[in-house]
Amino acid sequence: MIRPTKKVKTGINKLPDELLCKIISLLPIDEAVRSSIVCKRWKALWMSASRLDFDYERMKTFFSSLKYAELVRSLLGHHCGNDLISCCFRHTSIIAVVESLVAFVVLKYKRLSTLTLECVSINLYLNFKASIFSNLSSLELTNYILCDSAFDGCQKLKILKMKRVYMDDETLNGILKNCSSLEKFSLVDSTSPMLVMRNRNPASRNLISVKKLNIRNPSLKILELQSLTVQEIDVSVENLQVLELENITCPPKSLKIYALCLKAFYSSCKKNKRGNPEILKAVDIIENCSDLYEYRKINIFRYLSTLSIELDLNLETEANALSFVLKSCLYLKTLEITIPVEKGSNCGGYSSVLWGRSRYNCIKDQLKFATIRGFTGKNKEVAFVKHFISNASIIERISIICDDLKVAEEVAVLLSLPRASLYLSKVRVGVREGINSDFSYTVEIDTSP
Predict the structure, then answer these.
(1) Which of residues 425 and 368 earns the better pLDDT score?
(2) What is the rounded CA–CA span in Å between residue 356 and residue 410?
(3) Bridge partners of 264?
C-alpha cells in the first residue's frame, strides 16, 4: 500500500510576505524567478522584490548575448515598479544594450536609488545622456571608459564607486564637481593609460588617464583610493572621517591631505609592490601629512580613533614615525599594524626604550584594541608588545598574528609580564598560512591572575 507523502512544513513558510520579498531580493534574478515554483504563495513574490540582479554570466547558459536585453525587459515588465529601489546589470560589451537598459529602468522606476553596472568582458566606452543618474543616491561602475561627464545634476548622489573606470582629469573633476552631496567616494584601479577611439573613428584615437587627483567635496565623509598611479593627490575636505590608501603610487612630496576631522585611517600595499620606491608607504604618509620633521598646519592623525597601517617595527625610521603618531593621537582606540615580510628588516639599532617614554599617552590612557600581523618575534617587535602589556592601562584585547607556529608558542613567554590593564584577560595568538590569509590556527591564552 502506497501512503501519500506528507507536506513538509518549514519555518520559512511562516514568514510574512514582506520579509520573504527581502530575502528573495538578495538572490540573482535566475534564482529569484525560480522561487516562484516553490509554492503557489511564492509565485509572485519576486515581482515585488526591492532589488534585481541581472548577471549575464549566470543567464548566458540559456540565452545569447543578443537576447540579454529582451529577457531583462521582459522580466522588468512583470515587476511592480513601485517596489524596485536597487538594480544591478552585469553585461557584455554591447554598447546599445546597457545604455538602453539604464535609460529604461531610470525612467520607469521612480524610486530607484541604487544602480550597479559592470561590463564583464572588455572595457566599454559609454556616453550616457546628461542627467541620467540625477535621481540616484548610490552608483557603482566597473570596467568602463568615460570620456564625457554623464553626471550633470547629480546633487542627490551620496555614494560613488568606480573600479577600472578610465577617464582623464577633466572628466573626473567634472564628476566630482557635479556630485555636490557626495559622502562616500571609491576610486579603484582607474589610472592606467587607455587608448580610446570615439565613434569607431581611427582618427579620433586618444590616450587618456587620470594624472592628478584633486578632491574638494565638502560633504565627503569616506574616501577610498586603491591601486592608483598618479602624479599628485590633493585632498582638502574638512569633514572627511575615513581615509583608505591602498597600493598608491605617487611621489611622497606630491601627497597633500587637509582633513581636520579624520577619525579612521587605513594604509597598506601588496607584498610584491612594497619594494617599489614609488609606492607610498605608511612612513611616507606620516612624514608628509604630519609635523614629524617640520611644522604643518594640519596633522591628520591628531583626532584618529582607528589607525591601521603596514609598517616595519624593526626599522628605525618607521618605528620613529609610528612613535610620533602615537604621541600625536589624542583619542586613539584601535591600532592595527601589519609587519611586512622583508629580508634584512632586523637591522637598525634603535633602543627599545623608545616605547617606554612617558609622552606616548595614547597607549597608556586611550588604547583599547591592538592587533599586530606578521609578528616574527624579533627584538624590536617583542619590545613593542611588552610595552602594550605593561603600560596600556585600559586595553581590552591584544591580537598577535604570526606566520610561524613556533613563534606563536614563544609569544606565551610575554604573557608572564605584569599587566597594567585590569580589562585585559586574554591575548589572542593566531597563525596564518599566507601573508593575506585569515587565521588557520587560533588560540586564546588566559592572562587573568
Answers:
(1) 368
(2) 22
(3) 242, 306
Cα three-residue angle 276-281-286, rounded to 5 degrees: 150
The span from the CA of 47 to the CA of 24, in Å, is 10
* In the block, residue with C-alpha cell 549566470: 58
> pTM for this structure?
0.85
Compute the distance between CA of residue 227 and CA of residue 163 in angstroms, rounded to an integer. Answer: 10
Whole-angstrom Cα distance, residue 83 to residue 101? Answer: 18
Greatest alpha-carbon span in the chain: 92
Cell 587605513 sits at which residue? 266
> What would the grid cell of residue 95 be?
554598447
Q: Is 220 exposed, middle or buried (0-12, 13-18, 19+ CB in 10 A)?
A: buried
Higher pLDDT, 256 or 19: 256
- Residue 389's alpha-carbon distances to 106, 180, 249, 353, 425, in angstroms, are 56, 46, 36, 15, 11
Opening angle at CA 221, ends 288 and 188, nearest 5: 70
Sign of CA dihedral 39, 40, 43, 48: negative
- Backbone phi, then psi, for 441, in 5-degree steps? -150, 125
Cβ pair 334, 362 in contact under 8 A: no
Residue of 126, 131, 128 lying closest to 146 (CA atoms): 126
Q: How much is the pLDDT for 45?
A: 75
Nearest to 428 by CA among 369, 386, 382: 369
Torsion of CA 308, 309, 314, 315, to 10 degrees: -140
Residue that is written with C-alpha cell 519576486 in the block: 46
